[in-house]
Fold this sequence. Notes:
Blueprint: H1 4-36, H2 40-79, H3 90-124, H4 134-165
Amino acid sequence: xxxxxxxxxxxxxxxxIVVWMGATILFVSVLGPSMRRLNPASRxxxxxAMGPAYQRxxxxxxxxxxxxxxxxxxxxxxxxxxxxxxSQGMPWILAGILLGLAAYVISMxxxxxxxxxxxxxxxxxxxxxxxxxxxxxxxRRLLLGGGISAILLVLAxxxxxxxxxx
Length: 166
């Protein structure tokens, strides 16, 4: 019989990771490059519109993913060890955990920090006005942090899938 706690944690973990990865990859691969084609004032206006949603989405989905993943790991290693991966798979799972935590730290410390500062500058800048010079640097930092996070998340996903299947 399926363990309902395990399935619920796994479901929450996977759904929140899909949302986190999806938003990160969409921003890095589509929205960020598209914003470069806009003039600086339009870019900042667009950012005013989508920045708060990006902030909420990444903050909530990444925090839920990490929390559910760590609780899931504790559950399968401490409570229901029959669900734990094999001894060959466990190092892959641990590598995935470390990569996921690194992606979380970079998301929070680099990407979302730049996002918050951009939102502050955008709120101080009148619509259509020329943005301050630091906006371009912060936008690059946001894309760089998002890109590194996306790469780490893909590597974490691959590691977890390998570990779960060994």
